[in-house]
Amino acid sequence: MEFTNKLRALGDKVTRLKDSIQTEEATKTAFIMPFIAALDYDVFDPLEVIPEFVADLGIKKGEKIDYCILQDSKPIIIIECKHWRENPNDHDNQLHRYFYATSAKFAILTNGIRYRFYTDSEQTNKMDDKPFWEFEISNLSDRDIRELENYRKSNFNVGQIFSTALDLKISNQVRHVMKKELNDPSDNFVKFFARQIHSGTLTKRIIEQYKGIIKKSLNQLISDPMQVKSATEVHRPVKETEDFNGKNPVMVEAGRKAAQTRKMTKINEFTIGSDSYPIAKSYEILTKTAEWLINNGNLRETNCPIATGRKRNLVHTTPRHRDDEDFVAPKILSNGLYIETHFSTTGCIKNARKLLESCGHQGQLLKV
Q1: Is residue 164 one of the residues assigned to a domain?
Q2: Beta 366-367 vs 269-272: how paired, if at all?
């Protein structure tokens, strides 16, 4: 809660003071340094944050990055700052050069209001053209704050954040496409639905006829989540308090198990030994356990494949199972291995413990 309050207070401060900020240096001092400090880095400790970090490319000597955040004396995040009135989009070429010249895995381009996060998901050591995530400090969502938790000094894990970055990038692209299609459906989008309804030829007139109906129907569905629930709900789980009087005992037991599963999905933290990890999604139990093993030198390519069941792999050098099927929900770990994460919350816990055991640790070392 304290972290959330810090970020909200900074957002309010930016809104209140921005018209008084006349220079880039003032933007850095008033807006960007407090943001770095909110992530628990000491902006006055050169072992944690280096201002004016020199990045020599050989092409243009002595180029300086506004801020470089360090972990174990190595660059992990570089930050390029602009005056709050400037559009960050106009300066990403400069950040490309800086990214190439350092070993940092993440780069931030900001004007103190909008923050754009980059990594090298497409080609190693070459910054992607598009950010995998962006937000406005004065308009943070709860989701943004949960993601920023991962960038705090005590939580920062390169492999975990890189994996999350790939998810965010795809998720944001899907949202962008969906928003565009919902506002102005393309012919291909309309045909996808129309072919499942209309048995005849899809003429231009019919496509136009369907376009308005599909747009209206989907927007109504999205605006009323209960319609989605009623459309996908097959059975009502029996409440735990109901008895067997006049009821199928199998359904009663199914209801109890469903209730237990719902309770399990509310996990927001787990521990491995004395190490504690906050999580936003259940699959992070698996990925963070794997990263813990990697950091302890226990999970390497030579361990692979690590199986879960007769035909399925949990961790492998490629995202494929023993039956030659692709992983359903693969995540890339910091050492280049792939982990399957397509499990329920209970399944994630079970397989994380199995992973610990396969690497020489006790499964019960993991607590939720």
Answers
A1: no
A2: antiparallel
Question: What is the pTM for the complete model shown?
Answer: 0.55
Which residue's entry shows tokens 């199998």?
A: 250
333-to-33, 260, 282, 313 alpha-carbon distances in Å: 31, 30, 16, 15
Residue 165 lies in a domain: no
Q: Which amino acid is at 97?
A: R
Domain around 24: 2-158
Residue 186 lies in a domain: yes
Tens-digit pLDDT profile for residues 196-226:
888 778 888 888 888 888 888 888 777 665 5
Whether residues 121 and 140 fall in one domain: yes
158, 192, 222: which is the final residue of a domain?
158
* CB-based burial, 5-37: b 16+ in 10 Å, e otherwise: ebbeebbeebeeebeebeebeebbebbbbbbbe
Judgement on whether residues 133 and 28 belong to the same structural domain of the protein? yes
Spatial contact of 315 and 303, defined as CB atoms under 8 Å apart: yes
- pLDDT tens digits along 31-43: 999 999 999 999 9
Residue 243 has pLDDT above 60, yes or no: no
Amino acid of residue 132? F
pLDDT at 63 > cutoff 80 = no
Neighbouring C-beta atoms of residue 215, cutoff 10 Å = 17
Check whether residue 125 and residue 28 sit in a common domain.
yes
